[in-house]
Amino acid sequence: MRIIPRIGLGVWQIPDGEIVRNAVRWALEAGYRHIDTAMIYRNEKGVGEGIKAGNVPREEMFVTTKLWISDQGYDSALKAIRASLERLQLDYVDLYLVHWPFADEEKTQEKRADTWRGMEEIQRLGLARLIGVSNYTETHLEEMRSYAKVMPTVNQVEMHPFLYQKALAEYCATNGIQIEAYSPLAHGEKLNDKTVSKIAKKYGKSNAQILTRWALEHGFVVLPKSTHKERIEENFDVLDSKLETEDMKTLDNLNENFRTCWDPY
Ligand code: NDP
Fold this sequence. Notes:
By secondary structure, this protein is α/β, with parallel strands linked by helices. 41% of the residues lie in helices and 14% in strands. It is built from 10 helices and 8 strands. Helix 1 (18-30) links the parallel strand 1 (9-10) and strand 2 (34-36). The longest helix is centred in the middle third of the chain and has 17 residues, at 108-124.
């Protein structure tokens, strides 16, 4: 069974070329073995170069990319993964995700089913070790039962204390779907929150580390993004700081349905 490293470097909005190459290299030096990119981030080429430069054996790496909305459909999905692999200079990705549940045109349910058939074929061909979805609600996941031969391993969604999607997390846990928490630092928009600062002070950690730790304690895979070496290292340095139940509760209670990304509901 393929194990998903619990902390991955997110690379959305990191420009292709030297900046993303460096971010990936620094992450690998810091101990990350998981990189989360997407076709639409337009940096797969630099990510691939960074991975190559990092010299980590391929089997130790966990690389995720995603199928964009405009590539939904059976044939387009197969074409899209091959193009992503070419840019990444890899023979396979560890995880391939349907980025969003909707397609460009109407009849999205039919399109989702068609796309998923393509994803299953991608896995069968060995182009992706695992397949999953992103931004799927409970309704989208339930709908999959009618068309999926293989249910998704992962649902990657926005998740942080300010958007604690408890019902979705419980649904996924019950159904054996791993949640990956994207924008775990609320896209940088809540890093000065007073409550988080207070907890951070108690543990001698940074606010970003407390938010990362919160996701881990809930059993989510967590994908913090940074372009700065010291922050990349800091976000990974969270494995020793268990949060007390009471502090977890305080953080859970910060939920205010604050979304930094689109709302798939
Ligand atoms: P995050 O929640 O990870 O926050 C990133 C922001 O926080 C940046 O501004 C970054 O600045 C700053 N930051 C990072 N670390 C620190 C630190 N230690 N101290 C202070 N500031 C810090 O944002 P994202 O929205 O990028 O989400 C993370 C990843 O999740 C994405 O990169 C992507 O891989 C994934 N994602 C997936 C989506 C999907 O639809 N599936 C949607 C959105 C994200 P700087 O870079 O300057 O250091």
